[in-house]
């Protein structure tokens, strides 16, 4: 009769490695070459479902942003504007924002970080298209070019992203957390974060690059924890319950805390700098940080061919360029009118137009100009 010895730390580590090796599913030889064939679709059905969730989530986010913008415009036209949080339309935009973010969150459970994170360009370009269509914003040549480049980059990203289907379990996350690659990575990030925070707090340096770098460092922890939480929830629904492991709640706390501080620094950047500058730079920094986190923590480019990596990075570059072109100089189009309407000032009665109608004969002249001229000439004669 055989006697089973108790499992030691070495057996637990080997079991984790065995499970980790089973969690990776690579395509057949030639996978990752970007061929949109039937075999490619069959190998990447789970990835495509995650991509669909991310694209739909980002489109819903762009719709919600424009709904909130439209509610602000409506409130500004009222004689006695109400607070925006009392508007039903504004709360509808917030609800759609929550739905879109939920779709993005779920997408990380089905597809790699390096595939989902760059798809944030869909939200920016989609918001520009919706604002032109429904809010009657000006359609510029740079908008068309930027949208085209963003779509081309999205196509390359979906086609040449890592062909790795990875089931995220609690044991897999624990194994990654103690890996030497991640330990070096997180120690480096902590040092850089502390140095930048010192210059920001003590030296008063509030440059946009410093603020958005702090956001990007926190974003790397956000995407790692979001994929871990979403992956463990997906694994629990399809295979085995993972929500009883402490690592799930640790990752959940990291996800919430990193999101809160990330929003804090991002709001500070939007207060100090134009949104048209912050949005593309933040998108670039966030995407790069997320890609590095996916490569180091989840090893998503393990075994990828050089040509696949090159075309993937080229797709990222096209999406970055598209976002920059769409957001460039957009705020300058919303300049204030060249005259002030005193009729909107409470307690003041408007006696005459400050600037007459452009179709009238008196356009470009001051009101009662003849009377003022006569009075001036009369005073000169008396003197």
Automatic annotation (TrEMBL):
Membrane topology: Multi-pass membrane protein
Annotated Pfam families: Mg_trans_NIPA
Family note: Belongs to the NIPA family.
Gene Ontology MF terms in the entry: magnesium ion transmembrane transporter activity
Name the record gives this protein: NIPA like domain containing 2
UniProt keyword annotations, A-Z: Membrane, Transmembrane, Transmembrane helix
Subcellular location per the Swiss-Prot or TrEMBL entry: Membrane
Organism: Pan troglodytes (Chimpanzee)
GO CC, any one term: membrane
Region (Disordered): 355-383
UniProt record, GO biological process: magnesium ion transport
InterPro entries reported for this sequence: EmrE-like (IPR037185), Mg_trans_NIPA (IPR008521)
Main subcellular location: membrane
Residue stretches spanning the membrane: 46-67, 88-110, 116-135, 144-162, 182-200, 209-235, 247-266, 278-298, 304-326
